[in-house]
Design a protein that fits this description.
single chain, alpha+beta, three-stranded antiparallel beta sheet, 10 helices, 24% helix
Amino acid sequence: MTPLPLCLPDSMTAEQFLKEYWQKKPLLIKQGLPQLIEMFEPDDILELALEEDAAARLLTQAPTKQASKPQWQIKKSPFTEADFENLPAQWTVLVQNLEQWSPELGQLWQAFGYIPQWQRDDIMVSYAPKGGSVGKHYDDYDVFLAQGYGSRRWQLGKFCDEQTEFVADEPIRIFDDMGDIIFDEILQAGDVLYVPPKLSHFGVAQDDCLTFSFGCRRPNLMQIIDSMADIATNDSHLFIPMLLPQTAQASGELQAYSIESIKDQLLQMLQSERGSNIIHQAVCEVVSKRQYDVLVPEHTPDTDELMQALTEGATLQADYSNRLIYTQHPDGVTIYVNGQRLDDFDDKATNLLMRLANGERLQIEDVRGVEPDELMEWLENGWIWLEDTE
């Protein structure tokens, strides 16, 4: 696969998009991802949803809402073929983490190269027959809605917040009031719609259609705090009891002064070099963690086959179903993969992993000087993907 052009209108730069649209307002990108057209058909997704390890959901919508029964029903995988029999007219199947099942699809993340890799979540596909939908809703993350097959009508409305009222007693977060409609268009295969966080949107299949959601994510504070606690447990210095000033007081009282003193020492630690290192590592581990379990590939070439393929023109690329990132600091570069800090790479290997994380393709000339067994380990761990010339 040749390098992909960025998924942006021809007249727009990445800097302009990030300044004017990112997390601010939606953008329609006509034919922004033509590579997606007919990459999959509906039957491909239905077959994938039946896979034992697939992360999938089936949403069905009753034609009318009965007083004692919710309008929507949801079932999570694993599925059997019986789950797709006798369905109502309006239904949708959603499959997460498509990169895990199709490295070729994962490579389309390159078209969104203006978004840092650590903010990419996963690619979800939504299949629905005519009239299918998942209701009026909003997401807490940025998403690029790419039409891959058929067509879908999208309406965008108001920005939502914590006070937005959802329909009661439904298994999914939907609401009725989208406010003034600011966008109402039908996307054809290859079209892409960027939707910022908390913007209400509503998509309805116009025919058998596949919509691929390229979702972006950022950590929440609770994830960072949890990771900091895990890392801090390995620092014996933090287990030393604090020294606290004492004043005369009732024996049963915990004074606000004591709590403030403890808080001050905690903040001092966080602002120290020790605290900075803990925060740094916590953030890196959180943003590089996988959301889904690793699937073991059916076939992995052995070391000789790998080197032979590279000799014949194959390339190595980052596997976008994994999380490969790096950080630079005064002492050098640290590599993080799938939530783990890895420190045992020499300069050559570190440089190659940085290039892979940045989306580069490596050829046989690039990997000379690296032990074939080390490359093989990267491949077996799922960090990289071998793209043949065929």
